Amino acid sequence: MPDRRSILLLPLLAAACAGRPEPVPLPSGPLGYKYLSPLPLNVTGIDIAEEAPSPVPGDVGARLTPSAPEAVRIMARDRLIATGTTGQARFTVSQAQVIQSQDALTCLLGCRLEILSGLGSRVGFAEAAVTRSVSGPEAKRPNAPEALLRRAMDDLNVEFEFQLRRALKDWISPIASDADGGMAAPGPGQVGVEDLAPGSAPRRETLP
Hints:
Elements: H1 4-18, E1 39-41, E2 45-48, H2 68-79, E3 80-82, E4 88-100, E5 104-116, E6 122-135, H3 137-140, H4 144-167, E7 191-194, E8 203-206
Parallel strand pairs: 1-3, 2-4
Antiparallel strand pairs: 4-5, 5-6, 7-8
Helix pairs in contact: 2-4
């Protein structure tokens, strides 16, 4: 039989549990973009730099799984493929922080893709950057940093593809259909329809 002290503590414990915020739901499975069509580059290889941006005060991005810099590199590994016979591409993470302050969380992500000629000179580049934040009670919920990074990565994925097609359209090569009749990359003037995230509405755009 519980003693009188334990009985008196039960309402306090129940109140504490009731006031605990619910964790922010996270997507199931690891972060990845292989469900999307690849972005084929007319180069012989793609170098994805392992260097991470310098940390800033309040940055918790390095403690996440995956870390903020690694999340950006995962996007590059999953989306970019080399299909050419000359030249090289180099992908770098220019910004990757999840900054935690007293009442807010801010995620800053950025990347850069350079195209190098066979002699090593830069012949083109594309850059993409996004910012997303939450504040107040939402910023203090369990899983809030991880959820914010996931949402910001979806933003960066969309922005990166847009900037790549805009700035490096001459370096995007078509993908021929495979022996089983797989879908080829849309040609000039065709409209591509693609889900950018599981469960999201399709995005339609006229491709160069």
